[in-house]
Amino acid sequence: MKPVVLLLGATSDMGRAVARAYAAQGHPLHLAARDAARLALDAEDLRLRSGVDVWTHPFDVLAEDAASIMTGLAPPPSIVICFVGMMGTDPQLIMRTNYTGPAMVLEAAADFLQRQGGGVLVGVSSVAGDRGRAGNYVYGSAKAGLTAYLSGLRARLHGSKVRVVTVKPGFVHTRMTEGMDLPKALTAQPDEVARAIMEALEQGRDVVYVRPVWRLIMTIIRLLPEPVFKRLRI
Q1: Residue 10: DSSP 8-state
Q2: CA distances for 228 relative to 134, 135, 139, 144, 192, angstroms
């Protein structure tokens, strides 16, 4: 049997794209998300299209027992991918949803994979975490926290059989960005994110930018002197 995949935040557009891609390759799937009705519909569609086993689980990253998602999964996953995240206007909710909530669940997932003897852990962060910008500094700081957490976790697990991969999308056309005026040349589709994740796992990469041009863009932005950067208001 092919490795079992657990998707956290599975009803997000990126999560659904990754689910379709893995199902097409014959991987059994655990799907976890808050929206039980959408989750059930997606699971049935995947079963019909790809003939794979799909299990669904209620999951709210803000719940006190969110990390308990890692207990009792049968068959146990060896690939765990977290898509949980949000944009909005409530700073506390943004911080908890994009950083503290996912980090605590990923910590439990890392321990689970260690006890199991190995696996792959993928956290979807954002290029927004590479430098705090005036337009989205709360969201960016939360993603910066998640990126730093994944980097530290990767270092802690180095030498073990558990890999940690950080995925940094730039603009992605999803429900979360609906209505935004996004530059077409820099905006990926969810299926593109799915391909990037699967290629990163196949190639053994630690950090992947979606699209690759974002690595250059964010390098330039990080190198700008603070007196110049703060005047740009980007």
Answers
A1: T
A2: 13, 16, 22, 21, 33
> Which pLDDT belongs to residue 168?
97
Residue 11 DSSP symbol: T
Describe the crossing of helices 101-116 and 137-157 by its angle, rounded to 10 degrees. 20
**183, 213 contact by CB (below 8 A):** no
Closest CA to 127 of 219, 40, 44: 219
What are 6's two structure tokens?
């657990």
Rounded alpha-carbon distances, angstroms, from residue 110 to 80, 98, 210, 234: 9, 18, 24, 35
169 prior amide bond cis, ω within 30: no
Split into its structural domains, the chain has a count of 1
112 close to 72: Cβ distance less than 8 angstroms:
no
User: Which parts of 84-172 fold into alpha helices (H)?
Assistant: 91-95, 101-116, 137-157
Rounded to two decimals, the pTM is 0.94
The model's pLDDT over 167-198, given as tens digits with 9 standing for 90+, comes to 999 999 888 777 777 888 899 999 999 999 99
Angle between helices 36-50 and 13-24 in degrees, nearest 10: 20
Q: What is the CATH number of the domain that holds 187?
A: 3.40.50.720
Catalytic-role residue among 22, 139, 149, 209:
139
Annotated catalytic, 139?
A: yes
- Domain limits for position 106: 5-232
| DSSP conformation class of 66 | G
Question: Tokens 């730039």, residue?
Answer: 170
